[in-house]
Amino acid sequence: MTALESGTEDKAFYERKLKTAQFYMSYWTVQTRSLRKQVESSSELMTQLEEADFDL
Asked: Which of 5, 34, 41, 42 could serve as a FRET partner for 16 with CA atoms 20 to 30 Å apart?
């Protein structure tokens, strides 16, 4: 049972916590998808490099 369900006296505090959590989850869900695409595309590029490509 959550604090809101049990009838907390600080209802506004818990409602703000829920709104903050919803914001971060929606933000990071989008960011995670974008970052995954970047990692996957970078991996493909990295496998195309030869060892000699790293010599300076």
From this structure: 34
Tracing tokens 């990295």 back to the chain, one arrives at: 46
* Amino acid letter, 48: Q
Two tokens, residue 34: 């974008």
**Structural domain boundaries in the chain:** 2-53
Question: What is the SS3 assignment for 39?
Answer: helix
Q: How far apart are the first and last CA of the chain?
A: 61
Scanning the chain, the segments in alpha helix (DSSP H) are 11-48
